[in-house]
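Folded chain entry
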Amino acid sequence: MNRRILQILLCALGGAALLLILAAALLSPNREGVARAGITLSHDSGFYDEPFDLELEGSGPIYYTLDATEPDVNSPRYEGPIRIEDASGNPNVYSMNTDVSLEFHTDILDQEGRGLHNRYQLPDAPVDKATVLRAVCIDEDGNRGDEICAVYFVDYRTKTGYQDLNIVSITTNPENLFDYEKGIYVLGTGFWDSLVDGRVTAKDSNYEFWPANYRQRGIDWEREAYVACFDAERNQTLSGKFGIRIQGRYTRGMLPKSLNVFARKQYGQKYIDAAPLFGVNWQLSSLNLNTGANGIRVKLHDYMINALIGDMDVATRDYRPCALFLDGEFWGVYWMTPRYEEEFFQNRYGVYGSDVISVKVGEVEIGRDEDIELYNDMVDEISSGDMSDPAQYARACELVDIDSCIDYYATEIYTVNTDWPHLNKALWRTRNVSDGEYADGRWRWIIFDMNCALNPDKLDYDMVQWAINRDTLFASLMDNEDFKKALYARLVDLAEDTFDPEKTDAFVLEYWMAMTDIMQKDYQRYYADTRGAEDFRDYCFEIAGFFRKRSADILERYGDYRE
């Protein structure tokens, strides 16, 4: 409508009439109107006891998919109700991919003289499934509206293992996971091109560390996904678009793989509400979905240790077990937990998130690059000092929270974590000193990745000496008699209270009873193991046996140091 016509209309009809004309024009079908249009569903995402007919309504033609791919004009066009039934009997698709681990390429491992570490098998029966719907309005000019994603679990009340368990669904374009070039879950070009170039014959490293797409890091290897979470009562506790990445070091080469989930403004929400997920009034910017890593066959280590030492002066996390469905297919048992990020420390300790520094395995995890100097200066001063000198030890106590230090080393030593302290060590502090118990600028310790601990075959290790040989800060502090006595007294306290065998037996027994059925599904999914329940029981009872023997061992070694 040009200016001259507008002027004529304004004069002839008056302002009120013109407004009606303009409103009608805005409401008529057009490019922008369709682009803003949404879709309504007759049934929300969730759990249904019976099959049903799903109806969709939109302001234009609706195209949809049921295989997690992004809908376009080549996808089925919605013409009438879509029958939603239990999809578990459908053929396995994504769970049959063999590019997710080198263990499916035994010819290459044999050539390199490598055996199978984990003995993965493709599932030999249909895995449990959900129906994932993606739908969008696309007009005749190709303009897309806002896409909608929903996930439906039908007849899960009768399936064993899922009762009293959180359910997480992640839906993303399958190419984001499995594509040769861009897939984050596969060997992909990262491995196969390296094989051609001769860069995968690193005899001194496990094949899990060989180049692969899943070993890539950073924002370039983050993929957009729809994430939906449901609690044990099947209330939806999280829904929306997020970014997902592969998480971990060695375990990136294992199955299944741990994932990080990121909230970002570009995906539609800046924070994750932790209240329905963890029962705390926090806002988080990310979550971790952890497989159990090196303890993947039992998935108990991190959860149990964090739960039992929760009142100690070290940073710990809350772990919630869940079953993950990836693009509609059962992907195993995971632990959902907050990540150690600015928001975690701000919420947990009442400090300013922007003032938090965290150093993990000698590198800045949270903060600025130059913050590493604060960490290095602290380590150098304590490591090179004479801690037998009361004045120098007092200075060390100004640099670190000594109670946190003692709690941390006692926990790692007691649990015989041999993947530490050369790895898996982390500390945090506030950059500046301000009001508040935890804003004093002293370093405090963080518990994470305990999955190489609790090994009954390593009970005879002298873990105090192990730590002295690998940690100059700890070795120096052990020159102080007060520190040494406090450490030994803490170990005795762990044996008689925190990790008392009656307490740990009860903890393991409860876990075993609650998780047996779903872990059976996990074993069948990744190892085609029909006797997984028996294997899982044996792993659980090994851990219970570890704590019984460790308590007696600690009391024999350090019982004279009771407080």
About this structure: The first helix runs from residue 3 to 27. The two ends are 88 Å apart (CA to CA). The longest strand covers residues 236-247. The chain is about 35% helix and 20% strand.
